[in-house]
Amino acid sequence: MYKGYLLSDIRSFRNAIYLLWHRTTLHHVYSTSITHQANVNPVSSILQRLQQEIEENPGSLPFQEITYCNLGNPQPLGQRPITFFREVLSLCDNPTLLDRDETPSLFSTCAIKRARMIIDSLPSKNTGGYTSSQGIRSLRQAVADGISARDGFPSDPDDIFLTDGASAAVILCTSDNTLHMSMHGTWKWAYFQNKTAMSSEDAILCPLPEYPIYSASIILHGGTRVPYNLTEHDGWGLEIFEVKRCLEEARALGLTVRAMVVINPGNPTGQVLSITNQEEIVEFCRKEGLVILADEVCQDNIYSENKKFNSFKKVARSLDYDENDLSIVSFHSSSMGFYGESGRRGGYMEISGVGADVKDQIYKVASVTICPNIAGQILTSLVMDPPKLGDESFESFQAEKEKIHSSFWKRAKTLEKAFQSMEGISCNKIEGALYFFPRLHLPSRAIKAAKAEGVSPDIFYARRLLDATGIAVVPGSGFHQASGTIHIRCAIHPDEEKIEAMIPRLKTFHEAFMNEFRH
Ligand SMILES: Cc1ncc(COP(=O)(O)O)c(C=O)c1O
């Protein structure tokens, strides 16, 4: 498995060196913390076996195909890429097409114009060269323009770092040899101050349940994760008194808490924070000198009439704080939203409220892997600066976007209704992101049966579900569910037809499971 991780993650020679450097720690983390990757999901070996069985012996299983509700990976499940994005990407990769007579009949004028602008702004005038470690300036400018239009507050391209997906940005901000943040939100740098690694006294507040890249990266780099509980019975709300309790406990133990991770909209929990709640968080972090690490990768996935996405930076600016009062790093990704381009590895982080010296150091750390990939950089600029009203591609772009978004919305509501109707399952409304995290209240005999098999009840349930129906979900322990609770994470990525078709199978399985272990 360790080998598998290296093979799938090595994208360049430098990345390989970096990973080898961390071999010992990596092995430790791998065995203790990283369970979110598909290849280490505890049901994944069964998944592979069943997929092989379907291919080699069709008709031998009680189902015809696997329903992949375990992954946040839309395109392999049938989601079509956005045409404008792909047109621009292909023209940028094949710039000779720009001068061919037939090109205007094959590509939209908008895409041709955008590709030409991008190519002209590339240092090597093609997509085959290294770029600045921070990302190409014109593309950062496009991202900054998109942020300004979204938030109504200015964004500076010098505050933007384009990255290989949000993951690379998160790892950079939670890593050793990189940042040490002072109690007052002004970052100090360990590496450049003769302190070579984050120590276990350096801590970061993380939600629980969480998207586990945070705990994995913090542990990998020798720091400490301080979990704070989201309140399940209150729609996975984020209560400041709970965060304060965890902060005080951590400080009493001698930890230096440097930052607070907030995932909004939530993965795996699907909640969207209210603006009042965000204001409380901003005020709390300012007062306590914590940097906000705002994971906003699902900002374009909102399914609520009453809730709206607000970036933490916008909330902080609306409160009229001096920019230097609070450091915020916001992460975004081209993997989510209606774009769903997870394989392109596009993303950015916007760093606000830090000095030029800190940005210089971030630049140095980013330069360890030379530069983010160019397709990801271009895609991220397109996500943040798509066709506008009046552009030739606007209507078709908008139609594609709406189609995908309304389909997510329908799937979310269908699954929500199904989970809420099932015995022994409580499930919060999904307001955003791409997942449900229903809680299972299983009979004690089921819990004993799981114990007898040497697995936790969530794994026991998920395995049984997969074996009986072909429906793949992720056991809640992969997201550090609160102890004593049992959850599964179910993604809404299979298309509407597949979701409709799986619900009777899910309900029949669940009823039979509950009956089997009832007494
Ligand atoms: C909450 C959250 N943060 C970060 C990421 C990483 O995104 P990327 O694919 O851009 O690395 C994901 C991916 O699923 C996510 O759900």
UniProtKB/TrEMBL annotation:
Pathway: Amino-acid degradation; L-alanine degradation via transaminase pathway; pyruvate from L-alanine: step 1/1; Photosynthesis; C4 acid pathway. Transfer of C3 units between the cytosol of mesophyll and bundle sheath cells to maintain a nitrogen-carbon balance in the C4-dicarboxylic pathway. GO terms for molecular function: L-alanine:2-oxoglutarate aminotransferase activity; pyridoxal phosphate binding. This is Alanine aminotransferase 2. Its cofactor is pyridoxal 5'-phosphate. The keyword Translocase does not apply. Keywords: Aminotransferase, Pyridoxal phosphate, Transferase. Its EC number is 2.6.1.2. It comes from Eleusine coracana subsp. coracana. Gene3D superfamilies: 1.10.287.1970, Aspartate Aminotransferase, domain 1, Type I PLP-dependent aspartate aminotransferase-like (Major domain). CDD domains: AAT_like. It is an enzyme of class 2 (transferase). Homodimer. Residues 109-497 form the Aminotransferase class I/classII large domain. Belongs to the class-I pyridoxal-phosphate-dependent aminotransferase family. Alanine aminotransferase subfamily.
